[in-house]
Amino acid sequence: MTSSPNDLIKFLRRLRTVRDFTSDPVPEAALADILEVGRWTGSASNRQPTEIIVVRDLEVRQKLNAVGASTAARAALVLVIVTPGDAARFELEVFDEGLLAERLQLAAAAHGLGSGITTLKGDGPDVAKALLGIPLEKRVRCVISVGVADQAAIKAKPKRPEPRKPMSDFAHFEKY
Amino acid sequence: MTSSPNDLIKFLRRLRTVRDFTSDPVPEAALADILEVGRWTGSASNRQPTEIIVVRDLEVRQKLNAVGASTAARAALVLVIVTPGDAARFELEVFDEGLLAERLQLAAAAHGLGSGITTLKGDGPDVAKALLGIPLEKRVRCVISVGVADQAAIKAKPKRPEPRKPMSDFAHFEKY
Questions:
Q1: In order of start, what are the domains of chain B with their CATH numbers?
Q2: ipTM summary value
Q3: pTM listed for this prediction
Q4: The pairing of beta strand B77-83 with beta strand B51-55
Q5: With an 8 Å Cβ cutoff, are A106 and B110 in contact?
């Protein structure tokens, strides 16, 4: 079976950030797929600057949570993205990190899992490096929480609309 | 019909950069879907810093091609990404640009179209701003070429493998 364009477009359009997770684990096969999709994500000049640390340990996730990864403690696991920290290629590293983060979230969604991108704040990157044994020169900022979305908790919350600007403010034709 | 996890994972894993395009146009309905998927792409704090300029005009694409957007002249159209150019939020703008670029490529692939990310080089951003009427303070760097992949041209080229590093160099568990 192959998916229709319409199915795939719907799948892509519907990705939303998940902030509430059940206590269910992420199945091993789903995690393997997420990592494989991540490994195949493109990068500038195919330099593949990104690496991932999968963290399930609750104590470590709680410590990441405390420094900005605001859903890390509630998720089943987090994916911490690491890049080389090459100052001359800073912009490219951040851009490639964005490509990867998007693809990881979609891979989680392909398995019906929820995910959300969070950002380490303040001394969060240093805390993460110490906790996870990441060399000091590396860059770490982005932590993706992954788990089973807690639909009951999501529904119980006051509705949090995530509106988007109108198409006319987003897309222009031929001229800005 | 809904797609199986396996179908979606295959779809995500198989995205590859396309550098050769036929002269076929991008159907309007496919472009509309690509832009709609782009509009719904997430961003830090839902600030939606990105905008897109769709450029079909060949002369303009040739000029963008000359300053780094290396497949712009061959594609059916290009999507030029614009962000506010807020220095204090530079890292977030670049990251969000990466999220968007990835999703746009996947939306093109959903319609069977090829795409490739190119980067304006040297004075390319200034050239693009002048050509497209983009205010000077804005940031522009990334140009995505979209069109029908020219399979004959791709096959005729010496095979260009795009290997990926082994999983053990990409994913780590609990510790770096």
A1: 17-152 (3.40.109.10)
A2: 0.95
A3: 0.96
A4: antiparallel
A5: no
